[in-house]
Design a protein that fits this description.
heterotrimer, B: 349 residues, mainly alpha, ABC transporter involved in vitamin B12 uptake, BtuC, 16 helices, 4 strands, 72% helix, C: 287 residues, two-stranded antiparallel sheet, 11 helices, 75% helix, binds adenosine-5'-triphosphate, binds magnesium ion
Chain lengths: 235, 349, 287
């Protein structure tokens, strides 16, 4: 059984329709990349899965159970955590408090703890007492990832974790991915950087204007197919 | 195919004609209406005007003032000062009321606009309290206990004698008629001015300011100027209404003239129940309010308790008020301010 | 010498105003909600304490101990079923709902308890005083001030050292992201309002013991509370205490010159601070 499945997932903001029936599935432990141009609906998809945008129950299933109408805190309790687009650290909280709040809902005795996060991103330990927003962009992204991991999720959603960061910093952040996957967690990575996404993912979905235009194994997909799916025209 | 932008609807055209007819009837009404009806209408018209003005600053402008009683009170007291201290005729002294409210609105805006978001509301309330306390120190106008307009002043208000002759009324009734006409003029003038304002560029700017100060600024709307203009204009008009109400009452005290309940709570309830952010709202609201008042006012505080709860219930279940409900059902807009794109098919011949 | 006395009395009075203000400040800080019925809720709590002392024959302190959980429940319910439904980007609905509540509460209390002045009597404590050498201060005012310091100390501990306080700050920063962290902002808001009502109960206890109260005095308490918050600077609880003290001192000095100027002097002090320090005395660095 798939860990997460969506069937004909629809989402809209007021009158504006952003997703037109998305079918997607993620297996346990799998890493899935979601790519697509600006405004394709990637963030909307993440927000729907995590309950920020409420939905009808049946359009999203987790371990076979409908979760589309649950609230974000209920979804988190089921083991789906998100690193939101733009990091969204709490400015009134220190780095450590940001991490602790992510661990407020902990599932079982998973791997992640404050110490484990600090050993994954050692720089954070030195800055643990600083306000979260006093850090550099890359460090903030580490906090955001650490915060999501603190609940020991079995599915981690990462929305554009490389956004606005220098290449060396992106490399550092992606270096943490194997450790995360080593816990058995599945990961969905939303990326604009297609090369990077294909390098780390098992499978890839491409969205365009609220629809899935490509589903493929990351190792097998051709540049031309991606180009066509991404821009809606042949290369 | 041609496109044009319009705010006019069929209902609004009908409403325009009906409004003109109503104003006409309103003008000649004193010829055959009873004195108590004229007094009721005076009450309705003045409350309607106050509610429209509050609706303008809060509903359209997002400046939720709980200090409107300051302008009613200061307007009334300025009129009294003109009559008692300087021997003015009460009717022209109403102009002093507007002036005084305008002058008070400047420091009020200055202080209250400094307060973040919702604290603006309490800020206006504080200024109103300060004004009340200061006025209560004004011994020549009766201090804390208040005073009355001198009989000589009320006896020969300009025009009253003529009205008394023409309609064959006693002086007291003729004064009511005059006050009623002035209230009618204020109500019509205020609503026409608000309607014109909302349809103008400033009205668009006001909507932008209400929705988001910063965004409005970034598209070149001078938010400060728009807010100041609207706030000062509304205060001035409120001062006129306050002065007029007390020309008719002829007796004043700080507690009554600066009453939060009478001049702000009632006014807010009228706008809320009728529908905030629409011109039609307060019209409907004032009629409902007047009906409730007539039937239940004897129940005193039970009545006020119920009004408070009714306002809460409206905000919870029908936040756009009675008119919002009607509009949703029927799509009718008597005073449309939204611009609509109209597409006319060329005649197929 | 008299002026030192006036100053000390003023500062102690400020403790009462800080108690009025702490709940208002807490709620505004967490959900940007200004509760216009705050003053009436204080009066309501005072009547609740009065009712308990009357029916159970308890002394006011014990009665307040009983009233506190009831007020917590009332605040929780109010937030959960009414205020949460109108919170949002638009500041108008919550303001109007709490304004309606203010009018409803005042008139409801008027019907139930009449317009008569009431007082929570605590016997000898009312007139007891302590000689501090330079000045003699009433035990009750001193106790009020100490309670205000205590409340603010505890609130600060809750805010900055507990999981609940962390949650308060997180939902205040960003409710959507907080919900992604497993918090339910609406429940947190309800707890915050409940907590504010516990502080309101304490404020009501001292209000009722120190002076007469009747159903109409709520709005004035709201104004003092608001002024203390603004003078202190949004988000600073110790600032609120300082703000309360400034209002208190201005009032006692005003009253010393002319009893009619007591209230006015407090308001003027507020305007002066707003004029020279629009963001208050101790504004929070990040906003
Ligand atoms: N809060 C909102 N209200 C209205 N429309 C929105 C809102 N958020 C997003 N949209 C619209 O929904 C569509 C999808 O947006 P979404 O943010 O999901 O795209 P995205 O793929 O994440 O883009 P990006 O790569 O820029 O992050 C866009 O057309 C966007 O304008
Ligand atoms: Mg996005």
């Amino acid at each position: 059984m798939a860990l997460l499945e969506t069937h004909g997932l629809i989402a809209q903001y007021g009158q504006f329709k952003a997703l037109f029936g998305i079918d997607l599935h993620v297996d346990p432990g799998e890493c899935v990349a979601i790519i697509g141009a600006n405004g394709a609906g990637k963030t909307t998809l993440m927000r729907s899965i995590t309950g920020v945008i409420r939905n009808v129950p049946d359009q999203i299933h987790h371990n076979g159970q409908p979760i589309g109408a649950l609230s974000p805190d209920q979804i988190l309790r089921r083991g789906i955590a998100m690193v939101p687009e733009g990091r969204k650290l709490f400015p009134s909280l220190t780095v450590e408090e940001n991490l602790l709040i992510g661990g407020q809902v902990r599932r079982g005795s998973g791997r992640w703890s404050l110490e484990e996060i600090y050993s994954l991103f050692p720089i954070l330990k030195d800055r643990r007492r600083s306000p979260g927003t006093a850090l550099s962009g890359g460090q903030q992204q580490m906090v955001a990832i650490g915060r999501a991991l603190m609940s020991n999720p079995e599915l981690l959603l990462c929305d554009e974790i490389s956004l606005g960061l220098a290449p060396v910093v992106i490399r550092d952040i992606y270096a943490a991915l194997p450790a995360i996957r080593a816990t058995g967690a599945a990961v969905i990575i939303v990326e604009q950087d297609i090369t990077r996404a294909l390098a780390v993912a098992d499978r890839v979905y491409c969205l365009m204007e609220g629809r899935v235009t490509l589903t493929a194994r990351a190792k097998e997909v051709s540049r031309e197919a991606i180009h066509a799916a991404y821009f809606g025209e042949p290369a | 195919m041609t496109h044009s932008v319009t705010t006019r609807t069929r209902a609004s055209s009908i409403a325009g004609i009906a409004a003109l007819a109503l104003i006409g009837v309103g003008l000649i009404l004193p010829a055959f209406a009873s004195r108590s009806l004229i007094q009721d209408l005076f009450f309705i018209l003045t409350m309607l005007t106050l509610a429209q003005l509050w609706n303008l600053i809060a509903g359209f402008g997002g400046m939720v003032s709980v200090g409107q009683q300051a302008f009613v009170g200061i307007g009334a007291y300025a009129m009294f000062a003109g009559v008692i201290l300087w021997g003015w005729d009460p009717v022209p002294a109403i102009l002093l009321g507007g002036l005084a409210a305008f002058l008070l609105a400047i420091p009020m805006a200055f202080f209250a606009f400094r307060l973040a978001g919702a604290y603006f509301a309490i800020g206006t309330w504080v200024i109103a309290e300060i004004t009340r306390l200061l006025v209560a120190q004004w011994k020549t106008l009766g201090g804390g206990t208040g005073t009355s307009l001198p009989r000589e002043a009320t006896a020969d208000i300009i025009g009253v004698a003529t009205i008394a002759d023409v309609f064959g009324l006693r002086d007291a009734a003729a004064r009511d008629v005059l006050a009623y006409w002035l209230a009618l003029a204020l109500a019509v003038g205020t609503m026409a001015a608000i309607y014109a304002l909302l349809r103008s560029r400033t009205g668009l700017a006001l909507a932008a300011v209400r929705d988001n100060d910063n965004a409005a600024q970034s598209v070149g709307v001078d938010a400060r100027r728009v807010k100041w203009t609207v706030f000062l204009s509304a205060a001035t008009m409120t001062g006129f209404v306050g002065a007029l109400i007390y020309v008719q009452t002829a007796r004043i005290s700080p507690d009554a003239a600066f009453s939060v309940t009478n001049w702000t709570a009632y006014v807010i309830f009228i706008a809320v129940i009728g529908g905030i952010g629409r011109l039609e709202g307060p019209i409907l609201g004032v009629l409902v309010f007047w009906g409730l008042q007539t039937v239940f006012a004897d129940y005193g505080s039970w009545y006020l308790l119920a009004l408070g709860l009714l306002a809460i219930a409206t905000m919870l279940f029908a936040p756009r008020g009675l008119w919002g409900l009607i509009h949703d059902r029927t799509g009718i807009a008597l005073f449309p301010v939204q611009r609509r794109l109209v597409t006319t098919e060329p005649n197929k011949t | 010498m008299i002026w030192i006395d006036v100053l000390v009395q003023g500062i102690l009075l400020g403790g009462l105003y800080a108690l009025f203000a702490a709940g208002l400040s807490l709620v505004f800080g967490i959900m940007r909600l200004v509760n216009l019925a705050h003053g009436d809720l204080i009066v309501f709590a005072a009547f609740a304490i009065l009712l308990i002392t009357g029916t159970l024959g308890l002394n006011p302190f014990l009665a307040a101990l009983l009233a506190a959980p009831l007020m917590f429940a009332a605040g929780w319910t109010l937030q959960r079923f009414v205020l949460n439904r109108v919170l949002g980007k638009d500041i108008l609905p919550p303001l109007l709902v709490t304004f309606g509540l203010s009018v409803a509460l005042q008139n409801g209390m008027l019907e139930i308890f009449s317009a008569d002045s009431q007082r929570l009597s605590v016997g000898r404590l009312e007139s007891a005083s302590i000689d501090l050498g330079v000045v003699t201060v009433g035990t009750l005012p001193l106790l009020t001030f100490a309670s205000a310091v205590g409340v603010i100390f505890v609130l600060n501990r809750i805010f900055y050292t507990t999981a609940l306080g962390r949650a308060f700050r997180a939902v205040s920063d960003d409710p959507t992201t907080a919900s992604l962290m497993g918090l339910n902002p609406k429940s947190i808001f309800a707890i915050a309002t409940g907590l504010a009502m516990v502080i309101v109960t304490l404020a009501a206890l001292y209000l009722g013991m120190r002076s007469n109260f009747d159903p109409s005095i709520g709005p004035a308490r709201l104004l003092y509370a608001f002024q203390a918050v603004i003078i202190g600077g949004l988000g600073s609880l110790w600032g609120t205490l300082a703000g309360g003290a400034i209002i208190g001192v201005a009032q006692t000095f005003g009253a010393q010159i002319n009893p009619e100027w007591q209230i006015l002097a407090g308001h003027i002090a507020f305007l002066v601070v707003l004029l020279i320090r629009p963001r208050g005395l101790f504004p929070r660095a990040v906003d």
